[in-house]
Amino acid sequence: MNNINSHHCNLNIWYHLPDEVWSKVAAIYKSMPGWKGYKDGIPHWFGQEDDDVFIEASVEPGGLSFYAQMNQSDWDSWITRFKSEATKELGYDVGEPEDGFM
């Protein structure tokens, strides 16, 4: 059964990082499955908040924040891929600060 759930994730990609880092993050956004583009400056994948399935990101003082509505396995796969791609492109281990990633 494909139960749709809400998911949230903060990553150690900090708002104060230089523009060249954020340019790399923007390229990662576009390479991820489900990329739909920006709406009002907010990146979206698969849909938007009024759709059943979507992912969106925002830059917060606590790091890059993702909010998603989708089934658990699809979310786990997508966010794992994002972390992996970001780790490769940014040159440091990308993960959740609450899991020790700084």
CATH topology: TATA-Binding Protein
Shape: globular
pLDDT average, as an integer?
Answer: 94
In total, the number of domains comes to 1
In CATH terms, what is the architecture?
A: 2-Layer Sandwich
Supply the number of helical segments. Answer: 2
At the first level of CATH, what is the class?
Alpha Beta
Strand content: 25-35%
Low-confidence stretches: none
Name the features.
102 residues; alpha+beta; 30% strand; TATA-Binding Protein
Q: What does the model show?
A:
This protein has 102 residues and is of the alpha+beta class. It has a single domain (5-99), classed as TATA-Binding Protein (2-Layer Sandwich), CATH 3.30.310. The protein contains two helices and five strands; from the N terminus they run E-H-E-E-E-E-H. The chain has helices at 19-31, 72-90, and strands at 5-11, 35-39, 42-45, 54-60, 63-70. The chain has a five-stranded antiparallel β-sheet, with helices on one face. Helix 1 packs antiparallel against helix 2 (72-90). The longest helix has 19 residues, at 72-90.
Layout of helices and strands, plus pairs?
Layout: E1 5-11, H1 19-31, E2 35-39, E3 42-45, E4 54-60, E5 63-70, H2 72-90
Antiparallel strand pairs: 1-5, 2-3, 3-4, 4-5
Question: How do you describe this structure in short?
Answer:
With 102 residues, the protein is of the alpha+beta class. 31% of the residues lie in helices and 30% in strands. Strands 1-5-4-3-2 form a five-stranded antiparallel β-sheet, with helices on one face.
